[in-house]
Amino acid sequence: MSSQPLPAAAPGSRRDQILAAAAELFARHGFHGVGIDDIGAAVGISGPALYRHFRSKDAMLGEMLTSISEMLLDGGQDRAEKFAEPRTLLTELVRFHVDFALDNPALITVQERNLGNLADPDRRKVRTLQRRYVEVWVGTIQDVTGIDEPEARAAALAVFGLINSTPHSRHLDRAQMGALLRRMAFSALTHGPVG
Hints:
8 helices, elongated, Tetracycline Repressor, domain 2, Arc Repressor Mutant, subunit A
């Protein structure tokens, strides 16, 4: 596989460095387009040496997508505990998700494209975490707008689609893109019908 150099590995444990490199590679080449040797080369070790950290490439993907879902849920719940006023909470949820997407484009891409490649237990865990994160948004959207639960759920998922499109639409610098996404997401969630 021909590859461009990866960005410097993120600080943290060796496992974190391996996961960061794997996320970049999976985002660029797809889960099935990346071998264990490719991941090892990206972090300066042999492919087989990765088995000291992960039992398989599938386990690596499972941990990667589970950790994304845990980070999102933890961030959403943390904000729900800190901000009681619904409109402020919605603003903070939007800000949090936009920042997460802009700071983790490879993880967003991997999650979008590779959920189906997870082993069943990992897929169930990720789906459960994702549902819990969506619920934080649904309740907040209902509190702000007064819309019913199905519409609030659809609105949350549509806004996630908007925000998570950032790996494919980086035409502005980070600050400009963040401001645009926050404005668009909040406006979409709080304005009345247009038709």
